[in-house]
Specification:
Largest sheet: 6 strands, parallel
Distance between the termini: 32 Å
Strand content: 15-25%
Radius of gyration: 17 Å
Order of helices and strands: EHHHEHHEHEEEHEHEHE
Helix content: 40-55%
CATH superfamily: HAD superfamily/HAD-like
CATH class: Alpha Beta
Mean pLDDT: 96
């Protein structure tokens, strides 16, 4: 029997969302002039709030503005590593670190499942001792350069569960042969939490707190 502990990242493990902070970090390191485009990126966020575009389109739009249309894998790895180093040291909740260590000591395979882009989520996951990362992926061109377009689904909501199930199948693990713990702060992860054997609402916002009360899911606070 495999034992899996699946963690969301933003506001579950980290104190704050990471995507915009990563974009600002990358722009400062690579092309500070792109910081002037932040208000334009903000217009994309407004379009999302008005339901004119979806999360995937917003992610592609902001990536293109702050990182550019294409970026070499080496350049992206450099800014991802420096961001991950700072985030792992300063941005991760101590309660999350304690739980990760406890799950590891109990023999759980640690999986980070996040809507964040894999290029920096994987770097954070490595520093925190995760065994695997399931995340949003960026498309690459024939030379291997990273594009602003997504490769597959944005790892959010029901898509996150589909991607976790696809990862599980790729590992050759049957759902019936594993025991799953899942941790998340947001109601968008309800499909994953309902699928888990042990769902935990962590640092939960009001909609998830309400759902957890109805479903009988334990509440944890790592803040």
């Amino acid at each position: 029997m495999q034992h899996l502990a699946i963690y969301d990242m933003d506001k579950t493990i980290t104190a704050a969302p990471t995507w915009t902070r990563f974009l600002v970090h990358a722009a400062r390191q690579r092309a500070p002039w792109r910081l002037a485009l932040l208000p334009v990126a903000g217009a994309g966020a407004l379009a999302y709030a008005l339901r004119r575009i979806n999360r995937a389109a917003l992610k592609q739009w902001s990536h293109r503005l702050l990182l550019g249309r294409t970026l070499s894998a080496a350049d992206l790895a450099g800014v991802s590593d420096s961001f991950a180093e700072h985030e792992a040291e300063h941005g991760v909740l101590h309660g999350a670190l304690d739980r990760i260590a406890a799950d590891r000591a109990a023999g759980y395979r640690l999986v980070l499942a996040t809507a964040s882009h894999g290029y920096y989520a994987e770097a954070i996951g490595r520093r925190l001792g995760f065994d695997d990362v399931v995340a949003t992926q960026a498309r690459r061109d024939p030379r291997g350069d990273i594009l602003s377009l997504l490769d597959g689904e944005n790892c959010y909501g029901a898509a996150k569960l589909r991607m976790v199930e696809a990862w599980l199948a790729g590992q050759g693990i049957a759902r019936a042969d594993c025991h799953v713990r899942a941790y998340s702060d947001h109601v968008s992860d309800a499909p994953l939490l309902a699928w888990a054997d042990e769902p935990f609402a962590v640092n939960a916002h009001a909609p998830l707190r309400t759902m957890a009360a109805v479903q009988g899911w334990p509440l944890l606070d790592w803040r």
